[in-house]
Amino acid sequence: MPSLTLRFSFSGFPRSRCCSTPTPKLSSFTSFQTEVNFRSIMDRLTSAARLMIVSDLDHTMVDHHDPENLSLLRFNALWEANYRENSLLVFSTGRSPTLYKELRKEKPMLTPDITIMSVGTEITYGNSMEPDDGWEAFLNDKWDRKIVTEETSKFPELTLQSETEQRPHKVSFYVQKDKAQDITGTLSKRLEERGLDVKIIYSGGMDLDILPQGAGKGQALAYLLKKLKSEGKLPNNTLACGDSGNDAELFSIPDVYGVMVANAQEELLQWRAANAKDSPKVIHATERCAAGIIQAIGHFNLGPNTSPRDVTDMSDCKMENFVPAYEVVKFYLFFEKWRRGEIENSDLHLSNLKAVCRPSGTFVHPSGVEKYLEDCINTLRTCHGDKQGKQFRIWVDLVLPTQVGSDSWLVSFKKWELCGEERQCCITTVLLSSKNVTVADGLTWTHVHQTWLQGAAASDSATWFF
Ligand code: GLC
Ligand code: MG
């Protein structure tokens, strides 16, 4: 496909304009609730984020050709162990909130700090996804979706996408590759004649989105960067990740690193050839999807780039400092491998585990039963290899440590288990301390407490160990 997205989505969006494009006054429309959610993200960061990852989902963070979701799980472990506490995860997707939530149910995805949906027309904060009303109000400029609907109805080649994908600032169609360029040109002129200023984006060789000129993934990112800067928390590094036409804009925002994953679409690679060919800040990874993101973290030297999932002997990986989040990730990876029968059923593993538990340490099972941690470790014998040959995965999300004493941390997180089609989750808190221990890496699990996440409890709670 020739430079379709270029001509139309970027003719009104030259590089230099990206950040000088008028963005709304940051607080003018922002509701109280949006402010609260944005604030809680800001409060978590004691200083500027070490890294902000802004990633597309379909075929970038999520590999639809990998039923095991391995690269996504590798990324998850890396993020939670090394970045979650002091960095920002932003998902930027073409999907509407409805389809985004469906994807989250289907795939082992982390919870992002910020979610940008509907091709940069909707921005929400936190787990509760509070919308940024200021951003949406700004998009009304020279936009009238009724006129867009009227004009597009004159093109029989355009097939309207599902109702869920039609949003206040996004009208979306399917169109054949060979017709897309002509239609985009004509439509663009007609809408201009009717007083609108729109951006038409072609993605994935089939999707055609019509948005207000000020919208799009790039503009939404520029807006966020501006908002963070006004808080004095401009991220130290930002990495944009994408695979298709609607991601192109992400790669023209100044001072942002970019990775086009190995499996990037033709239209995005053509955009790169025309616009960012010699830019050392944008790479075309050799790895697919989330593995390409990990590759880019390494390539640009943005921080740790070895996923704990890729470390075969976890007892080997001693950190320079005691990192509570890393300990949690490491334990659950051990537990997954134990149940998949990928590590040897030896007493040595169990005694190593016991060595890092306080003898009187307790575990409150989500059913409400309280046990000694040591007893729980003894029962692990019964589940070694019980998930062998099955699709069984464990991942942790939102691993957030709080230092509660000079040498103790309360780590809270969501612990997910996937077995076949079934998914279970416990909100978990762990009290870790580094006091009075003899083990070389110096930590003790003192207390573990779990509560079922609403709607994600196991039907048989006896199959839930930790
Ligand atoms: C997602 C959206 C769709 C959009 C496409 C490209 O698939 O669901 O509406 O056209 O992304 O942006
Ligand atoms: Mg994509």
TrEMBL record:
Biological process, per Gene Ontology: sucrose biosynthetic process
Alphabetical list of Pfam families matching this protein: S6PP, S6PP_C
Entry keyword set: Hydrolase, Magnesium
Top enzyme class: hydrolase
Alphabetized GO MF terms: magnesium ion binding; sucrose-phosphate phosphatase activity
Signal sequence segment: none
Domain spans labelled Sucrose phosphatase-like: 50-301
Named cofactor requirement(s): Mg(2+)
UniProt keyword annotation of Coiled coil present: no
Gene3D superfamilies: 3.10.450.50, 3.90.1070.10, HAD superfamily/HAD-like (3.40.50.1000)
Pathway assigned in UniProt: Glycan biosynthesis; sucrose biosynthesis; sucrose from D-fructose 6-phosphate and UDP-alpha-D-glucose: step 2/2
Catalytic activity: sucrose 6(F)-phosphate + H2O = sucrose + phosphate
Domain Sucrose-phosphatase C-terminal: 324-454
Record-stated family: Belongs to the sucrose phosphatase family.
Record NCBIfam families: HAD-SF-IIB, SPP-subfamily, SPP_plant-cyano
PANTHER family the record matches: SUCROSE-PHOSPHATASE 2-RELATED
Quaternary state and interactors: Homodimer.
Function: Catalyzes the final step of sucrose synthesis.
Name used for this protein in its record: Sucrose-phosphatase
